[in-house]
Design a protein that fits this description.
CATH topology: Cytochrome Bc1 Complex, Chain D, domain 2
CATH architecture: Orthogonal Bundle
Number of domains: 1
Helix content: 40-55%
Number of strands: 0
Shape: globular
Order of helices and strands: HHHHHHHH
Radius of gyration: 16 Å
Oligomer: single chain
Largest sheet: none
Structural class: mainly alpha
Amino acid sequence: MATGYRERQHMHRLIIAAALLAAAACATTPAPATAGAALYQQYCASCHGAEALGDGPAAAALRTPVPDLSRISARHGGSFPAARVHEVIDGRAALPAHGSRDMPVWGYEFEARSAAGAPGRATAQALTTQLVDYLRSIQQTGQEEAARP
């Protein structure tokens, strides 16, 4: 039993490491209008899926179900909790439902992306804000949910 758990944890770490290596290999500076979408595809889609439905290719290997990010507002009474989403992405918010933190702490990863001489925390905040803005833009209302097969 413990071996299976260790194997899953090892597999999860390998998937995250591979995703980070792939992201680093193709790191570019996207146009401002598409920056959040590009960041999402680069850092989030492997777990949350290309359409943010929680069905990314790495999701099956995780012990905690991956949330549908297109329904954040719906889960919060129709209001998008931007500050909370920012905290979760940044990694400084506690995620009790996750147990141990399975989701990478992107704030630290984004700090590492800062250009030489640029303040890392400011870069992390800017990239996280772009992701939050993108997630706000893809929120579904009940109509899109009803149209989904």
